[in-house]
Design a protein that fits this description.
This protein is α+β, with helices and mostly antiparallel strands and 128 residues long. It has helices spanning 48-69, 72-78, 97-103, 105-113, and strands at residues 16-28, 31-36, 41-45, 82-85, 90-93, 116-126. It is built from 4 helices and 6 strands. The strands form 2 sheets. A 4-stranded antiparallel sheet has the order 3-2-1-6. A two-stranded antiparallel ribbon has the order 4-5. Strand 1 (16-28) and strand 2 (31-36) form a beta hairpin.
Amino acid sequence: MSDLKFSGNHSDGKTGIKTELSLIYFVEEGTHIIFSPALDLSGYGNNEEEAKASFNIVLEEFISYGMNKKTLLKDLENHGWKIGGNKRKPKIQSPDLTEMLKSNRELENILQTKNFHKYNQDLLIPAF
């Protein structure tokens, strides 16, 4: 199986906060899907590469929209992310899988019924 890592960038000319994002890759009815339970975002395609590219676009749009509307931190908190630290050393932590399972029935369904691969990807959240 090919390497599941992908790369995606959001840049606004400032530094950001590095965090980790759990991703789940699976195939459903011939469609390849990359799902982020921590953000409730998915990308899909006819193969793994298309799914990665689709997910990168969705992630970029999510971050761009949140930055433009100044709702990114609130959106992350609504998804169970922990926002802390201070202005000089902010900290953002994605929810762990156990916590996500408590509130996300689709994630539970995927883990119980699909042949999947889970992996972690570094994510750079733009400075706020």
